Amino acid sequence: MVIRTLCHRANTIVSDPQDLETEKSHLTQALKTCGYPQWAINKATCPKPSNTKPSAGSPRVYLQACPDGWTRNKQSCYLLVDTPKTWQDARDACHQLQADLASLTTADEQTYMAAQVDDTYWFGLSDIVAEDDWQWEDGTNYDPTVTNWNSNEPNNMNDEDCAEIGSHAWGWNDQACTDRNGYICEIQTD
Ligand SMILES: [Ca+2]
Ligand SMILES: [Ca+2]
Ligand SMILES: [Ca+2]
């Protein structure tokens, strides 16, 4: 920190050589006082004040945190949005956030989300393409033994093709895709 501060000062100094020599000896003395060994002072280089490209091959930093306002469970971040939208508009809204409607594909994920919701939300499951051929938005194969449908659902009453969570018992119901619900977006991390 001391080096950075002093380097910043050094970068901003425009003066004659004698002043610079005097400044250098002051700075060197200040660094010694702070406990920096001489070799560290000699090796210290000041970053250029202008933009400098990161060197090629520098290690990539993986951010483990979810975006602000999102919640994490295992390898996923979730956002519950209360603004009512049709299922397709909700899917588009998640895409705008670089996310997808949530695919609740495991028992753990289904239990987790059941505990999160206190209202009805769309998630990423539909049989829009072909009746009773349920498909997850993230491409996971639909396993009818790993679901959380409420009893007697999905019933396709009056042609319901989109899945909502949070209707009675916090389980799932198939609902008309043109109805308006809040929705759950998911970002998978790794
Ligand atoms: Ca998921
Ligand atoms: Ca259906
Ligand atoms: Ca239904």
UniProtKB/TrEMBL annotation:
Residues forming coiled coils: none
Pfam entry (one): Lectin_C
Acetylation listed as a keyword: no
UniProt keyword terms in alphabetical order: Disulfide bond, Lectin
CDD domains: CLECT_DC-SIGN_like (cd03590)
SMART domains named among the record's database cross-references: CLECT
The keyword Protein biosynthesis appears for this protein: no
InterPro entries named in the record: C-type_lectin-like, C-type_lectin-like/link_sf, C-type_lectin/snaclec_domain, C-type_lectin_CS, CD209-like_CTLD, CTDL_fold, HTH_animal
Domain C-type lectin: 73-186
MF (Gene Ontology): carbohydrate binding
PANTHER family: MANNOSE, PHOSPHOLIPASE, LECTIN RECEPTOR RELATED
Entry protein name: C-type lectin domain family 4 member M-like
Gene that encodes the chain: LOC109464292
